[in-house]
Design a protein that fits this description.
Length: 189
């Protein structure tokens, strides 16, 4: 996780935590009047399991770690999560902050939407749109709406991204540094 992602991760977590819980004399308390959503219930249940294994009541960290379990299906350190996992966890944080966020609900129920968005963003960063369109047209012919390569299915988007990445120019080789008879760099070369 990059430093920017880490900052965003904890900022989003803080919003999700504050929307549902608060600290009272060192203990986590649930906010009154908060609607019980399916995702909130799943996080609380996972946090209770974590805390029970440690023979204590749930902590804020238990709730955060429970979000990882609910979002990606297993416990994993925030330092080791992939970009796809970060997106899924951030989506859960959004649902915890605002359970009525229709965009978050749809993306939660259809994880392929997030995968498609990541692929489209990645492909767009590899080449200009015109280049992407030419490669897609040559590869897929009339199999997609010309001008809208973003509408390709996920396997085709993956192929397109790998193809574009393989066409990236190799970095210029750096000249080898010559050494004199003493083993010091020879800067006259």
């Amino acid at each position: 996780m990059t430093e920017s992602q880490r900052t965003s991760y904890f900022r989003r977590w803080q919003r999700a935590f504050s929307a549902n819980w608060f600290m009272d004399r060192g203990r986590v308390r649930k906010r009154d009047g908060r609607t019980e959503s399916e995702s909130l219930t799943a996080v609380v249940n996972a946090a209770n399991r974590i805390a029970t294994e440690a023979h204590r009541s749930p902590t804020a960290d238990d709730l955060r770690h429970a979000c990882h379990i609910v979002a990606i299906g297993r416990p994993k350190s925030s330092k080791e999560i992939t970009n796809a996992e970060i997106d899924r966890i951030w989506l859960l944080f959004s649902l915890l902050t605002d359970p009525d966020n229709v965009d978050a609900v749809v993306k939660w129920q259809h994880p392929e939407i997030g995968e498609r968005e990541r692929l489209v963003k990645w492909i767009s960063s590899l080449a200009p749109d015109a280049t992407i369109l030419v490669i897609a047209r040559n590869a897929f012919g009339d199999a997609f709406d010309f001008g809208h390569w973003q509408s390709l299915d996920i396997p085709k988007l993956k192929w397109l991204g790998k193809t574009l990445r393989s066409r990236q120019p190799a970095p210029e080789p750096q000249p080898a540094l010559a050494y004199d008879q003493n083993g010091d760099p020879d800067w006259t070369v």
